[in-house]
Amino acid sequence: MMIGEERILAKNLIQEIFRISSKEINLMEFCGGHTVAILKQGIRQLLPGHVHLLSGPGCPVCVTATGDIDNIIQLSGYRDVITATFGDLIRVPGSKSSLQKSRAEGNDIRVVYSALEALDIARQNPGKRVVMVGIGFETTAPTVAASVLQAEREGIKNYLVHSLHKLTPPVMKALLDSGDVKLDGIICPGHVSTVIGARPYEFIPQNYGIACAITGFEPLDILEGIHMLVRQIESGTPTVEIAYRRAVRPEGNLKALDLMNKVFTVGSAWWRGIGEVPGSGLKLREEYRAFDAATVFQLTPQDAAEPAGCLCGEILRAVKTPLDCPLFRKKCNPEQPVGPCMVSAEGACSAYYLYGESDG
Ligand code: SF4
Which tens digit of pLDDT belongs to each residue from 119-134? Predict the structure, then answer.
């Protein structure tokens, strides 16, 4: 909720967006956190009808491929394994089961809030192997890297990481190369950018002529980001601007980047709805192989069918919205989700469901 001065600033930004925007403009908010904030705050309704906001693939739980979920479920079935994962993932359906069902069958699956919590479980259970499922973008990867380094320092041998971490700029490139969706501007993710900074997005205006603005999650941040994008687009001068200056520096967080680069190397990753994107994932480096669940348990990406009728793949590519899905609000709802976009708190379907987005 905005108060006093913020309200005036927001009003001025909206007036300015109306004044300078003259044509159809497609902006994609990459991050699921932005999708939620935009819908919750009713920001779409404040903009001119020709400025469209499309939801992108920036929900880590949603983009985790079904085959990878199947692997984690299989892993959770080993008698000596404790699987540690972030909350939303537990309810995401795999092709035959889910982690929730696996837990109901008696397997030891713990929901953790950080990788260090998983490391603690490993300390307390020396007779078990604890596998931390590393999902998330550049935001969570440094803390998972820190947990591996800590395990190494302490000589903890029963802690492993299954890295499904994904990188933002390479998948943005894959989306733009696919030509599936015509974009004029991208609202770049706030939290990811606190780690990677602004520079990794520079190829977008330079090679694709598409505007970029990094924003935070408050209504004013988002409106300022949209204003920056519209101004760049209307003046024909696409670049990368930062509307989240209190948290993002152009060079990013060098300490976090160092941590990430020390433990991980770049590899291929599978994305739901997008497929395999070279250079868009993080794998443990050779020297940390002993901590790598993929190596120890010989996990390889599997091909797996998407839930029948679910459009999450298309929604993550911004070519469809939840309103296009015939299952939305009918067979699929937060209590009985069919696909991950309804499970995750950052999923577009869950946000549309909770905040009442309708056609028009
Ligand atoms: Fe999938 Fe449900 Fe979203 Fe449809 S509403 S795309 S079934 S998660």
Answer: 999 999 999 999 999 9
User: Coil, strand or helix: which one is 183?
Assistant: coil
CA distance 38 to 29: 9
Number of other CB atoms surrounding residue 289 within 10 Å: 11
**CA distance readout (Å), 69 to 48, 89, 96, 135, 270:** 40, 8, 10, 11, 11
The CATH 3.40.50.11740 portion of the chain extends over: 27-310
Query: Is pTM, for the whole model, over 0.70?
Result: yes
Q: Whose CA is nearest to atom 7 of ligand 1?
A: 310
Instruction: Compute the average pLDDT of residues 300-319.
Output: 88
Residue 358 has pLDDT above 60, yes or no: no
For the Cβ of 59 lying below 6 angstroms from any atom of ligand 1, the answer is no
Q: Candidates 3.90.660.10, 3.40.50.280, 3.40.50.11740, 3.30.300.30; correct CATH number of 27-310?
A: 3.40.50.11740
